[in-house]
Write a structure and sequence with these properties.
This is 3-sulfolactaldehyde dehydrogenase. This protein is an alpha/beta fold and about 475 residues long. Helix content is about 40%, strand content about 20%. The chain has 15 helices and 24 strands. The strands form 7 sheets. A 7-stranded mixed sheet has the order 14-17-18-13-12-20-21, with helices on both faces. Strands 9-8-7-10-11-23 form a 6-stranded mixed sheet, sandwiched between helices. The protein has a 3-stranded antiparallel sheet with strand order 5-6-24.
Amino acid sequence: MDPFTKQFIGGKWVSGSSEKNIVDLNPYTGETILTIQSANQNDLEEAFQAAKEAQPGWADRTVAEKQGLFQKLIDVMLAEKEFIIEWLINESGSTRLKSGIEFDAALGIVKESMSFPTRMAGSILPSVFPNKENRIYRIPKGVIGVIGPWNFPFHLTMRSVAPALATGNSVVIKPASDTPVTSGLLIGMLFEKAGFPKGLVNVVVGKGSEIGDEFVVHPIPKLISFTGSTEVGRRIGENAGRNLKDVALELGGNNAMIVLKDANIKEAAKAAVFGKFLHQGQICMALNRFIVDKEIHDEFVNEFVDLVSRLKYGDPSHPSTFVGPVINKEQVERIQVDLDESIRQGAEMIYGGKVEGCLMQPTVLKNVTNDMPIAYNEIFGPVAVVIKAENESEAVEFADASPYGLSGSIFTEDRHHGVELAMKIETGMIHINDQSVNDEAHVPFGGEKESGIGRFNGEWAIEKFTTIKWIGVQSGYREFPIF
């Protein structure tokens, strides 16, 4: 039996109860990897009940027991590294380079989370009443619902699952339909192999139309963690808010690299290529727009295109491939619509443009304005747009003129001035003399505006996945004025 054709509920691999199927396709070859019988609301109910039953016992385990299991998880991940990487290549179209980066990021999250059981600090506060102390405890929220994405499926799902468990919660994962294994079932298998208690991690693979809303509004999960599009995130936020449920939402981005006239152009161009085309640009942090001072615009474009022309694209399993396939044909068609309309409006394609199935050649446009569809919308594909700015004030204005505010980049030889400009841009993250795709397990990750709510990683994850409880302790008895 292939466990990845099953649901993982209460520590058992079971068939879904829906009449519908999820067909898992290889985006490069178009071949079917496997078919999964979907979960329905009955399966979802069983998963949430299993998580609810497993959570209290897990929360009561000692720090040593929890950290011991996390160490086993690390050992299992390292032993299964090549297996995980092969799945990322075949299911998500990840190149070998990107798969390795993703594995290392996920491993970093698990290692950071392993420290959380010793970092759930409370406090004792004085009281205005005699002989009383106020004890503040940090405790798990309970059951966490995790909805995984398809772009960095393994890392971005683990980014919620590992901290949630480390802080004493249990989880139910709903993987992305395009990557049901790497954003869910594979994670369930790893926790099972590491010996975590049954029911602590559950995975339900199902269509959003059948279990999506119910996953969010179900009364058991106390928090819904979602990584994905702003459109879906807004719907999740509305449903959760209506039910007074907390959320952690990491959504879309339209990230800009500002290249000032004093920038090191060769270094900026190298960073630009990596930050744009890693995983075909299908990263929420990917660089969409390159806003370049007019004095160095042409020099930057020439250097950038020269580097892009050297990129190998094609089979993601080949070690030298840097740009693999886009996840599905619907995404290719969406990108092509924005590309064609922007060219109609005056943008000039100066490199690339070939499309074959889900494979898109790295493409570069210039003469782009900030209001063209390819600049205004999140691209999520291997298309780079260069926008000419009259000066740094206009560059900052262009960068900030987006409903998104996730990440960004500024290249300048004056690092202090770069920081001053970065403070003017409404974004959760921004990097001086580096590209925008950065994620460190101990550093807060998240965005502003339509890029989401909350922060992941480190102490910010502890804050998100726990709640606080006030217990007032009276030594002796209070005198009450009515007696």
